Amino acid sequence: MRMTQEDGDLDSLVRKRIRALRVAQGWSLDELAGRAKLSPSSLSRIENGQRRLALDQLVTLARALDTSLDQLVETDTDDVIVSPMIDSGHATLRWPIRAEPGMTVMRQRLTNPPPDTTASLRAHSGREWLVVLSGTAVLLLGNRRFRVETNQAAEFPTMLPHALGTAGGPCEILGIFDREARRGHHADRKG
């Protein structure tokens, strides 16, 4: 079977990724080889393109590097630039950003103050984090009210009734939701 240019590009990309992930962890060839149950010389030949990539070795290397095989061989770079989505029902502008499996990261522009009544607070399973990029956010958690200023972050379990708004003008946040919190927000938008 003949290797195409695209196959060669993927092969080279995977080899570079293996080396980059090893170096990012601060591991020597010996350390990663030990974790992957390979000889250091075999790992060196894999990284340098002198040994063919075998699927079983890729699976083992992905585990040793604490990543998935999918992430190790991913080639999709079509979605590098993400356009905002307008959610007029919630008065937000959202930029969905890929995250680790099970996590969702959203950059949001908030323009409305938080609700006046606790009846508007929502609760669902999960955990959320937010970082204020600009402006001031107001986070309502049960009966408590928190001002979250630019460059401050908040973390909370979403089983607490909560809502988010702005104080004195537009606010940009980066919201991070675990799988359960994401499901809860998705259900809120449907309902």
TrEMBL record:
PROSITE patterns: HTH_CROC1. GO terms for cellular component: cytosol. It comes from the Bacteria. Keywords: DNA-binding. CDD domains: cupin_XRE_C, HTH_XRE. SMART domains: HTH_XRE. GO terms for molecular function: DNA binding; DNA-binding transcription factor activity. Residues 18-72 form the HTH cro/C1-type domain. This is Cupin domain-containing protein. The lineage of its organism: Bacteria, Bacillati, Actinomycetota, Actinomycetes, Pseudonocardiales.
